[in-house]
Design a protein that fits this description.
The two termini are 46 Å apart. It contains 22 helices and two strands. 45% of the residues are buried. The chain has 535 residues and is mainly α. Mean pLDDT is 84; it is low at 265-275.
């Protein structure tokens, strides 16, 4: 029985890690065609891919830190009117997919948009009066205001417990406010800032919608070009290993920062029962705090929503309401099925580690949880490589049909990408359950299945529902895998929003885009309520 359980764990791990293994193994399948494509790309566009990717990562990293860190310091170290509201308002850009923000700013700021039209009419100007938003700097702007909550959230968490006490201690020792911020608050939050920045950069590497719509030549765009335009999966997979190299470096930075955060947390545990009060801001400092806290929410959420509502308010009759219901149903169906499967997989993996915490079990679960760090483009290429090989070797199996013409391939890609999201939530729930519960259940004769369904699940229901919600929203917003693997006539809200925006039908793209924003608000509300309870 134990061998069967281990084989089941091994099979689940293999299914979740197979796309990454296939991409790496593509280098063992050299052929003249793929080699010629890579040589041609290396001589022409590959240097641009590298420079554009590095430049975008650098600008987004600086932008996310510049926006998220001041906001985190303000709501934790200082006290001012509206601080409690800004604590959760800062999270609103998490509900806004980056590609939706890109569509909104393009519609408003482009040459024929209302902003430049108003400038030309008001001041008698001619031609372009605002830089082209669909550019590298425009993508960096969109990503910075869409992803800064990662930096803000982790930095705020790191500062919440000890920053007021340590700042008060430094004040009593005669340190000025700038010195306290520079030498106390920021060093305390440095590991969290690094971890949050790394998470934001992994989202940039995984993005397809913004870079494709803005025409930024990153590695993701190069993978799709080698695959779809040049019709060579091997070259696309080998190019995807370059993107994986970026991901590995960023993931290493994130894990190292997480270790430093744990060390800092244990080293700075509460030592005083009298909690120091945050510094009260008044006058010009209060006005500056309001500006610094309002600007990220305005740029990352309120203005994009207003830009998308403008075409809706102008003419409701042109909106495809009948097809909108079909797109919504497809998105909800895929999100719901994936959420249930992801929670089931997470429960099996987490229960296996709890029941038999050996080296092999832990290694299998850690490998299975790496999928979220892998971009969707890499997962799609890695998934279709073994399927294509199996289809060529065994044509009558019709494996290619089931993967590409049904939802099975799409669900597989979703599970590879988002099972780790559910696993983290379920494992955090398991960490709160004492092992004495398992021992008592075994003494009463409960088997593994009975223990999971009758003992663990009732206590893990809240964590499981949170995991399902996060996976559901991630699937609703996911674009790269969906746009390639979706069956015929199964468009989702994300795919339709991208296609309409690409065809310059931004008014029609507003409806599915705003629907994605509304769905994205669900985990933001859940997260803000959780933070309020902790505070």
């Amino acid at each position: 029985m134990r061998a069967i359980k281990f084989l089941l764990l091994l099979l689940i791990t293999l299914l979740l890690v197979l796309p990454v293994l296939a991409v790496v193994a593509s280098w063992a399948n050299w052929n003249e065609t793929s080699l010629g494509i890579l040589r041609e790309m290396a001589a022409t566009v590959l240097p641009e891919y590298v420079l554009s990717t590095l430049g975008l990562l650098l600008m987004v990293g600086v932008g996310a830190v510049a926006v998220g860190v001041p906001a985190a310091v303000l709501v934790t170290v200082f006290d001012f009117s509206g601080r409690r509201s800004f604590e959760w308002l800062m999270l609103l850009p998490l509900a806004m997919p980056a590609y939706v923000t890109a569509y909104a700013y393009t519609d408003f700021l482009q040459f024929a948009g209302p902003f430049q039209t108003w400038l030309r009419a008001t001041f008698g100007l001619e031609g372009r009066v605002f830089p082209e938003v669909r550019s590298l700097w425009g993508a960096a702007w969109v990503f910075s205001f869409s992803l800064y909550p990662y930096v803000y959230l982790l930095a705020r968490t790191a500062l919440t417990e000890r920053a007021p006490q340590l700042m008060e201690a430094a004040r009593l020792l005669g340190a000025s406010l700038p010195r306290r911020l520079r030498e106390v608050a920021l060093p305390l939050a440095r590991p969290a800032i690094a971890a949050g920045t790394a998470l934001a950069l992994m989202e940039v590497l995984a993005d397809f919608g913004v870079v494709s719509y803005f025409g930024v030549q990153t590695f993701t765009a190069g993978i799709y070009k080698a695959w779809l335009s040049m019709d060579n999966r091997i070259a696309a997979a080998q190019l995807a290993t370059g993107l994986l190299a970026f991901v590995v470096v960023v993931l290493w930075i994130e894990q190292r920062a997480q270790k430093r955060m744990r060390f800092a947390g244990s080293a700075t545990s509460r030592a005083s029962s009298n909690e120091a009060r945050p510094i009260l801001l008044t006058g010009s400092r209060l006005a500056l705090a309001w500006v610094l806290c309002t600007l990220p929410v305005l740029m990352g959420f309120l203005l994009p929503v207003a830009f998308m509502l403008r075409p809706l308010a102008a003419d409701w009759s042109v909106l495809p309401w009948d097809r909108f219901l079909v797109w919504t149903w497809n998105s909800i169906r895929l999100g719901g099925i994936t959420a249930v499967l992801a929670v089931a997989v997470a429960l099996l993996l987490a229960a296996s580690v709890r029941r038999a915490p050996g080296i092999l079990t832990r290694a299998a679960v850690q490998i299975a949880s790496l999928g979220y760090a892998v971009p969707g483009a890499v997962i799609v290429v890695g998934l279709l490589l073994p399927v294509g090989w199996l289809q060529a070797t065994w044509p009558e199996a019709r494996v290619g049909y089931f993967v590409t013409a049904t939802v099975l391939g799409l669900l597989w890609a979703y599970l590879v990408r988002f099972s780790s999201v559910a696993l983290q939530s379920v494992q955090s729930g398991y960490a709160r359950l004492p092992m004495s519960l398992d021992e008592s259940a075994r003494m009463l004769g409960a088997g593994p299945l009975r223990m999971l369904t009758g003992v663990h699940w009732p206590l893990l229901r809240r964590a499981g529902l949170a995991a399902a919600l996060l996976v559901f929203v991630d699937v609703m917003k996911e674009l790269p895998a969906t746009i390639v693997l979706r069956p015929f006539n199964s468009d989702t809200l994300a795919v339709v929003a991208y296609q309409l925006a690409r065809d310059e039908r931004l008014g029609e793209a507003a409806l599915p885009s705003l629907a994605l924003v509304a769905v994205g608000l669900l985990p933001v509300i859940f997260l803000s309520r959780t933070l309020r309870k902790k505070s």
